[in-house]
Design goal:
CATH class of the largest domain in chain B: Alpha Beta
Largest interface: A-B, 15 and 15 residues
CATH architecture of the largest domain in chain B: 3-Layer(aba) Sandwich
Order of helices and strands of chain A: HHHHHHHHH
Strand order of the largest sheet of chain B: 2-5-8-1-9
Number of helices of chain A: 9
Helix content of chain A: 55-70%
Distance between the termini of chain A: 87 Å
Largest sheet of chain B: 5 strands, parallel
Distance between the termini of chain B: 30 Å
Largest sheet of chain A: none
Radius of gyration of chain A: 41 Å
Shape of chain A: rod-shaped
Number of helices of chain B: 13
Structural class of chain B: alpha/beta
CATH topology of the largest domain in chain B: Rossmann fold
Radius of gyration of chain B: 20 Å
Number of domains of chain B: 2
Number of strands of chain A: 0
Strand content of chain B: 15-25%
Oligomer: heterodimer
Helix content of chain B: 40-55%
C-alpha cells in the first residue's frame, strides 16, 4: 500500500476514533441529564417524559459542535511528538514529493505511540457512571414504594396558608375550622348531617331594650371566693361514643354504623 | 533528516574560518537555498566578506567581489565590448564583468550611483545582463549578496524601497561576543595562514536542495498566519506608514521552508516563521514619523506586528 493511501486511512481512523469517543461521552452525559431531570419530574408527577427534551438537546448540540472540530489538533496537543506535523501532513495529503513522503512515513511510525485511552477522562467517566447508577436506583426505588409529592396539594396548601392566615401562625385560636389541629377527614355519613353545621343562624340584638341608668348605682356586693383547684380534671367523651345513647339519637347512630359496615 | 548532517558539516567547516556569526551564516544559507539575494548590514570588520567568500569556496561556486564607489560605472559591473586584435583581425569581443559569477558580493552597494545599482538589480531580477544590443545569460545558481554600512551615510545613495524589496532578506551582522572575540584574536593574531575549507556541496547538490526547499510542506493555518502578518504591516498606520507587499508573503513562506530544511525538519514550524519574519520584513516596511521619533526601529515594528497577528 502506498504511503499516501496508508496516511489517508490513518487520518480516517483518527477521525472515526475521535467521533466514537465524542458520541460515547456525550451519550453518557445526556443519560445523566435525563435521569437528573426525570427523578424530580416523577416525584412531583409533572410528566417524566419531558426529561427527554433537555437530554436530547444537549446530545445533539454538543455532538454536532464537537464533531465539526479538527480532531488532529487534540492529538497534537496531547502528544507533542506529533505537534504541527500531523496537520501539516493532512493539509498536504495530496502532495507527492520526497519531503512530504518522508513526513508521512515518520508520522506512520510515530503514531504507534498514541493510545486511545489517553483521550478518556477516566475520573469523569467513572463519576458519571456512578451517578447514573445512583439515579437509576433512586428512580426505581421511588416508583416501587410509590413515593411522590402531590404538587397541586402542596401549591394549594401553600396558597391557603398565605392567603387565609396571612402567613401568621401566632395565637391559639384558629381562624377557621379548616385549621383545627388533629381534624381528620369527614366521616362517612348521611350528607344531611354535615349540612346541619352549615346552617346560618341570624339573630338581632335590640339595643333599644337595653337601658342604662347612671343614677342608680351602688357599691358592688362583696363576695368571698375560694381559691380551689378542682379535684380532678376530666373530659367528657362525646355523647355519640357512649353506650348510653339517647332514644332520640339511637336510630341515627344505627344508620351511621350500618353505612360504615356496608362500605 | 539526513540533510541536517550536511548543514551541520557546513557550519562546522565555516567555523574553521569564521568565528561566531552563526545566525548570519544560517540566514545567508536560507537565501542561497531560496535562490534569492540578501542584503547584509553591519559595521566594518565583522567578517561579512570572509563569511561569504568561505561559503562560496565550500560550495565550489565562482565568487567575485565588487567594491562599490560613487565613480563606478554600470559597465564596470556588467562588462563591455572591447576591440580584440588577435590573429591580425579586429573584432569586438565581449569582456564579462565581475557579475558573471555564481556569488557576487557587492560591497557597500549604497555607495554606488543609482544607475550602477540598477545594472546590478537587473541582473538580480532577470538573471541576465544586457550590454548594447546583446543579452547574456548568467550562470546558475546566481546570487547577489550586497552589504551596507549603517554609518557613514554621507554621500551615499540609499537603495530605494522598491529595489530593496528585491532582496529576500536583510541580514543584520552584529558584534561577536567576548569569548568569540578572544577566539578571533587567537586565530588571526597568532596564526597567519588561513586554513583551507573542504568542498562540501557542488552546483547539483545546491540545485537539488533548492528544489527540495519548495517541496517542504506547510500547514494551512501557518500559511494563513504568514499572510495575516504581512497584511498587519499594512493595517497599522500609527506605526508603519508603508507596509510590505505580497512579495513579502512569498518570501516569508520560502524562507520558513528553507529554515525548516536547515534545522532538519520536513515541515514548517511556527518557530521558523517567527525567526524569519525579522530579516524578511525589516527592509520592506517604512516606519511612521511618530514611531521614528519615539526611537523605534523596524525590528520593534515587526515584533509588534507578530504580537498582534497571533
Amino acid at each position: 500500500m502506498k504511503t499516501k493511501d496508508k496516511f489517508k486511512s490513518l487520518i480516517r481512523e483518527i477521525n472515526f476514533t475521535f467521533i466514537s469517543i465524542i458520541l460515547f461521552t456525550t451519550l453518557l452525559t445526556s443519560i445523566l441529564i435525563f435521569l437528573s431531570v426525570y427523578l424530580p419530574l416523577s416525584l412531583f408527577n409533572i410528566g417524566p417524559v419531558y426529561a427527554l427534551i433537555p437530554a436530547s438537546l444537549y446530545f445533539f448540540i454538543v455532538t454536532i459542535k464537537n464533531i465539526k472540530k479538527r480532531h488532529i489538533i487534540y492529538l497534537e496537543k496531547k502528544y507533542h511528538l506529533l505537534d504541527e506535523r500531523l496537520r501539516t501532513a493532512e493539509d498536504n495529503i495530496a502532495d507527492q514529493n520526497p519531503v512530504v513522503g518522508q513526513l508521512k512515513d515518520d508520522l506512520l511510525n510515530d503514531i504507534k505511540f498514541v493510545s486511545i485511552s489517553s483521550f478518556f477522562n477516566e475520573k469523569r467517566v467513572s463519576k458519571n457512571i456512578f451517578l447514573i447508577i445512583v439515579l437509576c436506583f433512586l428512580v426505581v426505588a421511588s416508583s416501587n414504594i410509590d413515593f411522590s409529592f402531590d404538587l397541586a396539594r402542596i401549591t394549594g396548601a401553600t396558597s391557603n396558608f398565605i392567603y387565609r392566615t396571612g402567613g401568621d401562625i401566632s395565637g391559639d385560636r384558629p381562624s377557621s375550622l379548616d385549621d383545627v389541629p388533629g381534624r381528620s377527614d369527614p366521616y362517612f355519613a348521611n350528607s344531611s348531617l354535615s349540612e346541619l353545621g352549615q346552617e346560618q343562624l341570624d339573630f338581632l340584638v335590640k339595643s333599644s331594650a337595653y337601658k342604662l341608668n347612671l343614677d342608680d348605682f351602688r357599691e358592688p356586693e362583696q363576695r368571698e371566693f375560694q381559691d380551689l383547684f378542682p379535684d380532678e380534671a376530666f373530659t367528657h367523651a362525646p355523647e355519640a361514643y357512649e353506650e348510653r345513647i339517647n332514644e332520640k339519637h339511637q336510630d341515627l347512630v344505627k344508620a351511621y354504623f350500618l353505612n360504615l359496615a356496608k362500605q | 533528516m539526513k540533510y541536517k548532517q550536511t548543514f551541520d558539516s557546513l557550519y562546522a567547516e565555516i567555523g574553521k574560518i569564521v568565528v561566531g556569526q552563526k545566525e548570519v551564516v544560517e540566514q545567508v544559507m536560507v537565501a542561497l537555498l531560496c535562490d534569492a539575494n540578501a542584503l547584509l548590514e553591519g559595521y566594518p570588520g565583522l567578517a561579512k566578506t570572509l563569511a561569504i567568500k568561505t561559503m562560496a569556496q565550500m560550495m565550489d561556486l565562482k565568487f567575485s567581489r565588487i567594491q562599490n564607489t560613487p565613480d563606478l560605472m554600470p559597465s564596470d559591473i556588467t562588462g563591455t565590448f572591447i576591440i580584440d586584435e588577435t590573429s591580425g583581425k579586429r573584432s569586438f569581443k565581449f569582456h564579462p564583468g565581475p557579475i558573471f559569477a555564481n556569488i557576487v558580493l557587492a560591497d557597500e552597494i549604497n555607495r554606488a550611483t543609482p544607475k550602477t545599482q540598477s545594472a546590478l538589480l537587473e541582473a538580480m531580477q532577470e538573471k541576465q545582463v544586457t550590454v548594447g544590443n546583446s543579452t547574456f545569460q548568467l550562470d546558475r545558481p546566481f546570487f547577489v549578496l550586497a552589504t551596507q554600512n549603517p554609518i557613514e551615510q554621507e554621500g551615499t545613495y540609499p537603495l530605494p524601497e522598491a529595489q530593496a524589496d528585491r532582496f529576500l532578506l536583510k541580514i543584520k551582522v552584529g558584534y561577536p561576543t567576548y569569548k568569540e572575540e578572544v577566539e578571533i584574536v587567537d586565530k588571526y593574531a597568532f596564526h597567519a595562514p588561513e586554513p583551507k575549507v573542504k568542498v562540501l556541496l557542488n552546483k547539483q547538490n545546491l540545485s537539488s536542495l533548492q528544489s527540495m526547499v519548495r517541496q517542504v510542506p506547510i500547514a494551512n493555518d501557518l500559511k494563513q498566519r504568514i499572510v495575516k502578518i504581512v497584511a498587519e504591516t499594512r493595517e497599522k498606520p500609527s506605526l508603519i506608514e508603508y507596509g510590505a507587499s505580497p512579495r513579502a508573503s512569498i518570501g516569508l513562506v520560502l524562507a520558513s521552508k528553507a529554515r525548516a530544511l536547515i534545522k532538519g525538519r520536513n515541515y514548517v514550524s511556527k518557530e521558523d516563521i517567527e525567526e524569519m519574519a525579522y530579516p524578511v520584513l525589516r527592509h520592506r516596511i517604512i516606519l511612521d514619523f511618530e514611531a521614528e521619533r519615539k526611537g523605534m526601529a523596524a525590528d520593534d515594528a515587526v515584533r509588534e506586528v507578530l504580537k498582534s497577528a497571533r
